[in-house]
Amino acid sequence: MEKSRRRKDRKTTSLDTGQHSSLPPLLPMELMMDIFSRLSLKSIAICRCVSKQWGYVLGHPDFRDLRLARSQARPCLLFACFRGNKLFFLSSPQPQSQSPDDEMFAADHHMSFSFTRPVKDISTSVSGFVCVSFRGYQSGRQFMADESVVCNPSTGQSFTIPRMKTMKRTGGIRFFGYDLVEKHHKVLAMIRPPGHGGRTVDHQVLTLLGGRTEKATWRMAECGIPCASSRDIQSLCINGVFYYIELVSDWGLDSMIICFDVTSEKFSSVKFARDLYPVRRNYPGRLLDFNGKLALVPSDSLRVTSKCIVTWVLQDSEWSKLVYILPPMWKVVVGPKECLEIVGVTGPNEFVMSPIYSSDPFHVYYCNFEKKTVKRVVIQGMGAFGSGRRYYVRTCLNHVEDLKHMEL
């Protein structure tokens, strides 16, 4: 009799698992999602294993959307530390206050990946996902083509992007972006012929599907822009548009920025500002998201001896030159051995700088040119990667946590 009563109690306290049940859940679905969405990623992972009902709630698309919305309201800093074939992802809160005082945050270790090839480059965080690229090489008689892997630092998922449908064995180029209309990640790929005189060919697009049943396949994208293939290509996705530099070896007039609309899959181009030619004959700079607009910033590292930052911002197909004089306290706050790069902007007049290599301690700097302040943020937990160029560090602003499971 006592066993029967305990069995009955367990039935009345069980929650709906998403299947047909005559018993109502103890808490409404919306309330459970709201509670779970406030937990950390590690806590969510643990809660998935508590019961089938909790696993159902935490795997529901509405919960993923709610968690993503909360993360977008408070984005974080993402640090990708890589050396050889090893890659580590860490994150920390992104400073929200306007206080000029120094702050300290603890870095939360997300995931570690070990690949069969050395890491060549890492994209910025694109709606929670990061694309890792590896360089192709010749192994005896076998040619190992370029390869890219998409990683989700929040869930630990990673998968290799399928090879393009092409007969060419030359190096491939891949760009990673997000379609704001269809809510899909896309990959733009092309082939770079040998030498610098040819043009990129075989432009193709791949849509990465999240939880869909159809299979992802490459499709051709017509590119009628007469530009030469680059000796070095960098890219950036801003508001659903890819931007990448097509730069020839002699810095000729056919060097330009190529624009690719991720939704319509149409190409266009923008010429560099004429004033850039005599100043930067070897390289025009790095692409930067300047409050939703494309910008070029110096590719040179910033140091304590730096004087200013020259920025070119693209507005209505025209380039505007902005010169920011570093405030006097720059020399006081920035360490003498710091080697910094500009990783983003957080307002009309605030730049964010981060070290290129691992260091202990590890600092991120916020330079507000309107208030003439330099704020130093100490990131704890990065000391494990050591100092002295042991690891490259890619710092990404406004990283969000997307729990979506990507499928091909």
TrEMBL record:
Basic residues biased stretches: 1-10
Region Disordered, annotated ranges: 1-21
Cited Gene3D superfamilies: 1.20.1280.50
Any Pfam family hit: F-box
SMART domains listed in its UniProt record: FBOX
Ranges of residues in domain F-box: 27-67
Top-rank taxon: Eukaryota
Alphabetical list of NCBIfam families matching this protein: F_box_assoc_1 (TIGR01640)
Protein name: F-box domain-containing protein
Organism listed in the record: Brassica campestris (Field mustard)
